[in-house]
Amino acid sequence: MKKICVVITARPSYSRIKSLLTAINQNPNLELQLILGASALLERYGSVIDTIKADGFQPTEIIHMVIEGGDLSTSAKSTGLGIIELSTAFNNLKPDIVLTVADRFETIATAIAASYSNIPLAHVQGGEISGSIDEKVRHAVSKLSDIHFVATKKSKERLIKMGESIDSVFLTGCPSIDIVKTVIENSLFKDFNPFDSYGGVGNKFDPKSGYIVVLQHPVTTEYADTSYQIGQTLSAIQQLNQPTFWFWPNVDAGSDKISKSIRTYRENKKLENVYFLKNVSPEDFIKLLINSKCLVGNSSAGIRECSYIGTPVVNIGNRQIGREKGLNVIDSKYQSKQILYSVEKQISHGNFAQETLYGDGSAGINISNLLEEKSPSINKKLSY
Questions:
Q1: Are 154 and 130 in contact (CB under 8 A)?
Q2: Across the chain, where does the E strand assignment appear?
Q3: Which phi and psi (to 5°) does residue 78 adopt?
Q4: Residues of CATH 3.40.50.2000 domain(s) within the chain?
Q5: b/e per residue, 312-350, with b = 16+ CB within 10 A?
Q6: What pLDDT score does 384 carry?
Q7: How far is CA 272 from CA 159, 200, 266, in A?
Q8: CB 343 within 8 A of CB 294
Q9: Which of 97-101, 122-126, 240-244, 271-275 has the lowest average pLDDT?
Q10: Is the pTM of this model over 0.70?
Q11: Separation CA 33–CA 110 (nearest Å)
């Protein structure tokens, strides 16, 4: 039985990989080892570990690796601490394959620790282009990886051009689309009310009357501009005056600036129709997106999940620059007037047709089968 060690370190990482965890558990020839760490353990980011446990997944190891501060140096230091802690965990667990997701600093810590431990590394969501430091990290992880599970045709082509063997790159789609497909096919989004299930801050409203969702993260390479950037979005949302669910940012450098700006604006400007949330389960997040008029911000959920749903998206700034986008996405600069105009335009348009740019909802089982099939050839490759 092959031991597959999956490392989850943040809110989006879990939603990106949940269907694969289920598929591994259901595969009689694979054993799931689950490492949880970083912001997935922190209350200020919604304690994702609680959601993971509630879904029936028990962590094999827990890694504390985040140095608080939310600035540029703490990201680098957290990466170093992650390498140390993950190396110890891998030595204890002795997995046959380590699997890492996407493009975060915890992802590259996982890749380095696994590579120097001589453990085969599988990477999900490689080959994509985006802004910020994320693209550099993603490509670096790809070069450290032995097997690649990519979401799009262009991503596969890009990795092969980067020198990865055609025999090691597999077009599987993105596992996050699997959750969307399940929620839609089972009509789980009907009559969903997040106020009944999650604590938050702000004035409640009737979700059935319509709302927008805002999710804006810091851009590491634009750290000095973080407060201005979130200020422009806050101004646009206040002028829009629509019921809004606003999610707290991730742990990247600049998160403290965003949090402070939101709190200050909320106290001084009285955002009457905005309700702030830290975290919801992957399924409930999809329900919110399905029922929303528009997603605003710079989350990759607007690019991936919303393209399959058809939810209108206003993508702000450079965090997703270069990433393949569906027809549901409008790009906007960090200007409150342009953001406001774009959101009003998207709301007026309404939902778009479904696109399968990032997969058809079968990625989890596809990757599980490939992990079972390809494990021996990977181990043979590393033994030379």
A1: no
A2: 2-8, 30-37, 61-63, 97-101, 121-124, 147-150, 169-171, 201-202, 212-215, 244-247, 274-277, 295-297, 313-316, 329-332
A3: -65, -35
A4: 2-173+362-382, 182-349
A5: bbbbbbbbbeebbbbebbbebebebebbbebbbebbeee
A6: 30
A7: 47, 14, 9
A8: yes
A9: 271-275
A10: yes
A11: 14
Q: Is the separation of the CB atoms in 105 and 75 below 8 Å? A: yes
* Alpha-carbon separation of residue 293 from 168, 223, 274, 287, 324 (angstroms): 40, 30, 14, 12, 22
Q: Are 149 and 122 in contact (CB under 8 A)?
A: yes
Task: Output the CA torsion sign for 231, 235, 240, 243.
Answer: positive
Phi, psi of 122 (to 5 degrees): -110, 140
Residue 202: strand, helix, or coil? strand
Q: Which two tokens stand for residue 287?
A: 């329900």
Distance CA 343, CA 341 (A): 6
Tell whether the model's pLDDT for residue 187 goes beyond 90.
no
CATH number for the domain whose boundaries are 182-349 = 3.40.50.2000
Which CATH number fits the domain 2-173+362-382, given the four candidates 2.30.30.30, 3.40.50.720, 3.40.50.2000, 2.60.40.10? 3.40.50.2000
Contact assessment for residue 364 and residue 173, using Cβ atoms and an 8 Å cutoff: no
What stretches of 125-190 adopt beta strand conformation (E)? 147-150, 169-171
Alpha carbon distance 261, 248 (integer Å): 12
pLDDT tens column, 255-313: 899 999 999 998 888 788 999 998 889 999 999 999 999 999 999 999 999 999 999 99
How many other C-beta atoms are found inside a 10 Å radius of the C-beta of residue 121?
24
